[in-house]
Design goal:
globular; two-stranded antiparallel sheet; alpha/beta; Rossmann fold
Length: 271
């Protein structure tokens, strides 16, 4: 596993890891809110590494990346971060793969830089809008109940809400060592970062119908965070979309990594 420090937008230092085959098609993984690159462990340490160049970034404010106090509502900053990673590592037409919040960052990139530099995109339990009634309508009440605690500076309240979110994300119970590892990296994200991410007002309904590169939408049928209605409300605006519904929770890449990896392999190979 190689670790990189890359200067993102506004000189924000980003932590990026890569593994796999240097000459293979790059797959660039983007995690969800209050997560980090380690969330993709079951992909980075899988047989995907035999054929693909696997890259995972800690988004600004997360993991080992720098955690500035502001800028999380700026679409251009997110786009420039992703562009910086692609350029610095010379990723040749990568597949962008984003979980949950990750597709918002992917669409920030496409809005400002277009699709010419990428091969395709995978939306994994993803959302494409925030800050409106329509955006909230596809989020479950259980998730929304935890949101106030995400912003708390009181450790017990914050830990309780983030722990609750982790339990919502997966259809199978996490092992204690998995749960506490994930909780640890979740708590390493300052509350102001989570607040900055979730108070964005963004709507990509204008952009989705204009996407021309292939898109794979992977969603868990038992997703307890983002309702499957998101597919009808938002994702079906993408004319090129392939929709794969898995019998998993929100974190389908973790719940059934073998099936998820197989779908991702088939999609990336087809591009």
């Amino acid at each position: 596993m190689k670790h990189h420090r890359i200067a993102g937008a506004a000189s924000t230092s980003l932590h990026v890891v890569e593994t796999g085959t240097a000459t293979g098609r790059p797959i660039l993984f983007l995690h969800g809110i209050s997560q980090c690159w380690l969330q993709w462990s079951r992909q980075l340490h899988s047989d995907l590494a035999r054929d693909f160049r696997l890259v995972a970034v800690d988004l600004r404010g997360h993991g080992l990346s720098e955690k500035p106090h502001d800028g999380y509502g700026d679409s251009r900053l997110w786009a420039d971060d992703l562009r910086s990673v692609i350029d610095a590592l010379k990723l040749d037409h990568p597949v962008l793969c984003g979980w949950s919040y990750g597709p918002l960052v992917m669409l920030d990139y496409v809005r400002h830089y277009g699709e010419d530099g990428i091969a395709g995109m995978q939306f994994v339990g993803g959302v494409t809008k925030l800050g409106s009634e329509a955006a909230a309508a596809v989020l479950t009440p259980a998730f929304l109940n935890f949101v106030p605690g995400f912003f708390s500076t009181e450790v017990n309240e914050s830990a309780g809400s983030l722990g609750g979110l982790l339990r919502l994300c997966f259809s199978s119970e996490l092992q204690p060592e998995e749960y506490f590892l994930m909780l640890g990296w979740s708590l390493s994200v300052p509350p102001y970062v989570r607040q900055g991410l979730l108070t964005r007002s963004i709507d990509n309904d204008d952009l989705l119908p204009r996407l021309r590169k292939p898109v794979l939408i992977t969603h868990g049928a038992a997703d307890a965070v983002v309702k499957t209605e998101v597919i009808d409300q938002q994702m079906k605006r993408i004319g090129s979309a392939i929709i794969e519904l898995m019998p998993t929770g929100h974190g389908c890449f973790w719940d059934d990594a073998e099936r998820y990896n197989r779908q991702l392999r088939e999609f990336a190979t087809s591009l």
